[in-house]
Design goal:
Layout (H helix, E strand, L loop, with lengths): L1 H4 L16 E2 L4 E2 L2 E2 L6 E2 L7 H20 L4 H4 L1 H23 L6 H17 L1 H12 L4
Helix pairs in contact: 2-4, 5-6
């Protein structure tokens, strides 16, 4: 009944979101501190974007609190500390995207490597544990 009354319009866009990655280094430029998507982009495959942004803000908030208590060391180390976590998440997102998506440029060898990686993951408790640890998120 509802379907018969539904008014549809033309599709405005039919495109595929690019699976891209980016990291700005350092995450500090003078008194400007970058966090979240301003500092790094991860493909949605690993579901890391929001978690990384929240982690950045947590590290930065802690550093700013220390700064206003008269300690500058944490603020000076913000970029280095945040980037250590960011690059691990970027690595995981790259790996997981490579595992779960078929890219035309991969070719036959690449597809077989993808299948071998997936078979290994399905059969190895250690690989499954590493996947779970990275998927849930690494500690700050």
């Amino acid at each position: 009944e509802a379907a018969a009354q539904l008014v549809t319009g033309p599709s405005l866009e039919k495109s595929i979101a690019p699976l891209r990655s980016f990291v700005a280094e350092p995450m500090r430029f003078g008194r400007l501190f970058l966090a979240g998507d301003a500092a790094h982009i991860v493909p949605p495959t690993g579901a890391k974007g929001l978690n990384l942004a929240a982690g950045d803000v947590g590290v930065l908030a802690q550093a700013l609190a220390g700064f206003y208590r008269g300690h500058t060391a944490e603020l000076d180390a913000y970029s280095q500390r945040a980037l250590a976590r960011v690059w691990k998440a970027e690595r995981f997102s790259w790996w997981f995207t490579s595992l779960m998506h078929d890219f035309p440029e991969t070719g036959g060898f690449g597809r077989r490597m993808q299948e071998a990686e997936f078979d290994y993951l399905c059969g190895s408790e250690a690989a499954q544990r590493a996947l779970a640890e990275n998927y849930v998120g690494l500690a700050l």
